[in-house]
Write a structure and sequence with these properties.
mainly alpha, two-stranded antiparallel ribbon, globular
Length: 264
């Protein structure tokens, strides 16, 4: 991933942009990139990337949450140094339009995994509980969502489980890695994260835009929508966990999915 765009960059806006500026930037980008004007996959995906950025930044609560995520993000802390020249010359939005929508889209997934890894490497007290869920449980919520809704549909399931007729971690609930007794395929959080990271890297290298736009059998949602949902879910919990670990809050709200199908 050579281009690091946060949601402000996608709309060609600075982080202190006003609500009116966000709306204006979206209208301008939507007119230029709406799939009704161009029915190729690139236009459809580009519009979805722009719309997801707008949906987050135009909502005051979601924007505060996203800003909190950016302030502590290891991924964007490193990324800002690499894209400073492009951002300084007003190339944020233009970068998105140079036939790299796929890279920008998958960057959403890549960056939250960087931050999950950063959290795991910090070796927190996994037994700490917020709103009735352990810190380990929150990390597993993020990883198992990616596993179930992106990696498996994209053709990169955990074949170790499938070969033994087992239930995958993504379908067995957020405590699957912690279960005691019987066979435990993942012995630690690090082990499961590494497994997810390896399979995600395969998706990042091999994914094709047209495949991400195809509806999934059974749910009807597209993988592209699952990528946005995973990104937004991870931003929500990463921002909450960082604030909780810093002692700024003592509870974390449950993430509200955009589609009931994701609740299953």
């Amino acid at each position: 991933m050579s281009i690091h765009l946060n949601l402000y960059d996608i709309l060609d806006l600075p982080p202190n942009a006003s609500t009116d500026a966000i709306k204006s930037a979206f209208r301008k980008s939507a007119l230029q990139n709406h799939p009704d004007r161009n029915d190729d996959p690139e236009a459809t995906a580009r519009f979805r990337v722009i719309f997801n950025a707008y949906s987050t930044l135009s909502d005051a609560a979601k924007r505060r949450e996203y800003d909190a995520y950016l302030r502590t993000s290891a991924a964007f802390g490193a990324a800002n140094d690499q894209t400073g020249d492009a951002k300084a010359t007003g190339q944020r939005g233009k970068i998105l339009g140079v036939s790299n929508t796929l890279e920008t889209l998958l960057g959403h997934l890549n960056y939250v995994l960087w931050d999950i890894e950063d959290l795991i490497r910090s070796q927190p007290d996994w037994s700490r509980t917020y709103s009735g869920i352990s810190l380990r449980g929150y990390v597993l919520k993020m990883l198992t969502f990616i596993d179930k809704w992106i990696l498996s549909p994209a053709g990169f399931p955990d074949y170790f489980f499938q070969a033994r007729g087992m239930i995958t971690p993504a379908n067995s609930g957020v405590l699957s890695v912690e279960q005691t007794g019987g066979h435990r395929p993942f012995v630690s959080m690090n082990d499961y994260f590494f497994n997810v990271r390896v399979r995600t890297d395969k998706v990042l290298k091999r994914a094709k835009l047209i495949e991400l736009l195809e509806p999934q059998a059974g749910s009807g949602v597209r993988i592209i929508d699952c990528v946005f949902e995973a990104h937004n879910l991870c931003v929500h919990y990463l921002a909450g966990l960082k604030s909780a670990l810093a002692g700024e809050v003592d509870s974390i709200n449950q993430f509200r999915h955009s589609d009931p199908c994701f609740e299953g």
